[in-house]
Amino acid sequence: MAKYGIFSWFGFVMPLSERLELIKKAGFDSTCLWWEDEEGAYPVKKTDMPKMVRDFGLSLDNIHTPFCNSNDLWSESLSARSEIVKQYLGWLEDCARFDIPIMVMHIMEGDILPELSSNGIESMSCLVKKAEELRVKIAVENTKFADGVDFILSEIESEYLGLCYDSSHGRLHGCEFLLKDFGRRLITCHISDNDGEMDRHWLPGNGIIDWKEFCESFPKKHYLGNLMLEVYPTGDEIKGGPAEFLNKAFKSISALGSFSS
User: Fold this and answer.
1) 8 Å CB contact between 208 and 193
2) Per-residue H/E/C for 159-206
3) How far apart are CA 190 and CA 150, in angstroms?
4) Torsion angle, CA of 30/47/127/145, rounded to 10 degrees?
5) By C-alpha distance, which of 36, 8, 33 is closest to 100?
6) Within 10 Å of residue 163's Cβ, how many Cβ atoms?
């Protein structure tokens, strides 16, 4: 039976506790967190978030780590690589400390593609070794440059390294092949729709993604994780308020799950 989740930040500014309560009430099984302290009117330390999630009866699927300087994973500079690897090692330790099973990460960011080289393999191999020790899975997300994800997953084989497939990025940047080629290594997913122009984070059905094709490509036999929405409301959906949006979101992902199971 499919399990459904939604990212803890779903586009409405309100305390995390209220968001989690509404997520649970809408029928979701799980959520995921951006791994930095929340700021603004409702500050929450990231170290307090895992317990908050579980106190509301939700499972914590994963944390999404910050991706600034992720290109340094490929740097010619040993010091730059060592610094960024150290940060990710710390986040893996956080996962183990707070019993979080998956760390989602970007392996590159921005408009300029780093050269695919042994430097990146060396960086990721170090992270995978620690992930294996801690029994925490690393899920590499497809962003603009699918070739980098293909390169890493092709070069490093480990049950603790796999794919976080983002449907919106896949449609925008021609990454659909990753779901087909590495479906058996799918660890988690980010599901949202778009208009073919920008990463809108719309609910499935609000944009142009071919969800029938998506479901046909989905690795039903291998994937046992949550179908995880990473969505924000449209202008009209904002007017309806967070509870109505989450109810709509749950219906949307449930309909998709019935075709993916």
Assistant:
1) yes
2) CCEEEEEEHHHHHHHCCHHHHHHCHHHEEEEEECECCCCCCCCECCCC
3) 18
4) 60
5) 33
6) 26
DSSP H or E stretch at residue 102: strand 102-105
pTM: 0.97
- DSSP string spanning 22-52? HHHHHT--EEEEESS-B-TTS-B-GGGHHHH
Phi-psi map region of 30: left, alpha, beta (phi>0 left; psi -120 to 50 alpha): beta
What distances in angstroms separate CA 156 from CA 134, 248, 254, one per listed residue? 18, 39, 34
Residue owning tokens 């046992």 = 224
Q: Tens digit of pLDDT for each residue in 156-174?
A: 999 999 999 999 999 999 9
Q: What domains lie within the chain, and their CATH numbers?
A: 8-190 (3.20.20.150)
pLDDT tens digits, 121-169: 999 999 999 999 999 999 999 998 899 999 999 999 999 999 999 999 9
**CA-to-CA distance for 198 and 205, rounded, in angstroms?**
15
